Inverse folding.
């Protein structure tokens, strides 16, 4: 689609954590911008409904039920993208999990491992298979979803903070390794965003919503689509000189 004004015209894009929240919003935004998407998550019913909606709207979309912490699952998802669309041009590694807030010394080993498996091993798993596919076709763009928790620390969320800091380290490492081969790797650091994770947390801690609203220059919680728009731009050629960066999408929260 030469000359198209769409950000991602005819691009094959893989999106993880796509069954809800930022991932589902990204599926809609990326398709609106012309992408052909492969959606990945662990929940089949939600993926099937989303893909049906996208196809009804005239977009090219498929889904793969997969756990990003499992190497064979990620390999299968990337292979599905290449098989369906001939190549992999971009990826938004968005899958992530949180954990119940607890002081570090009370943090259960299994909870720590679960958070690190999805948030860190999952990103590493995705990148290595995505990069292999992109190297065969001359390059691409990868965006890893971190968090403001990857930039600063807050109490009682040690595992999540460690995992999101690690995502930024992986992003920078991959960016320096593959820039010369045509693969751009960047990260997002979203602030508080409407999602199942934060809605559940606010339900358990209702007073925290007001705290969040008071702690940023833009006093509101982001819509998932606002994060997805930033991811789409980073995946596009309009961000062609952006490599190894972390884009904060947080209403100014990290400027405090």
């Amino acid at each position: 689609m030469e000359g198209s004004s769409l950000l991602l015209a005819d691009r094959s894009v893989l999106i993880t954590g796509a069954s809800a929240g930022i991932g589902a919003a990204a599926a809609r935004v990326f398709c609106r911008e012309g992408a052909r998407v492969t959606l990945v998550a662990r929940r089949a019913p939600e993926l099937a409904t989303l893909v049906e909606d996208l196809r009804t709207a005239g977009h090219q979309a498929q889904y793969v039920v997969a756990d990003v912490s499992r190497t064979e699952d990620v390999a299968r998802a990337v292979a599905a993208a290449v098989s369906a669309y001939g190549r992999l041009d971009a990826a938004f590694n968005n899958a992530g999990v949180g954990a119940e807030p607890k002081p570090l010394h009370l943090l259960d080993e299994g909870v720590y491992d679960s958070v690190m498996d999805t948030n860190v091993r999952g990103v590493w798993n995705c990148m290595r298979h995505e990069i292999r596919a992109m190297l065969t076709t001359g390059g691409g763009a990868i965006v890893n979803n971190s968090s403001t928790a990857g930039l600063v620390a807050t109490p009682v969320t040690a595992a999540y903070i460690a995992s999101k800091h690690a995502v930024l380290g992986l992003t920078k490492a991959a960016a320096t390794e593959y820039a010369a081969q045509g693969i751009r790797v960047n990260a997002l650091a979203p602030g508080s965003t409407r999602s199942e994770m934060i809605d559940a947390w606010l339900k358990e801690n209702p007073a925290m919503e007001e705290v969040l609203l008071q702690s940023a220059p833009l006093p509101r919680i982001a819509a998932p689509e606002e994060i997805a728009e930033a991811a789409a731009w980073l995946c596009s050629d309009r961000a062609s000189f952006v490599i190894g960066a972390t884009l904060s999408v947080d209403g100014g929260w990290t400027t405090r």
In short: The beta strands are 12-16, 36-41, 61-65, 90-93, 140-145, 183-190, 246-249.
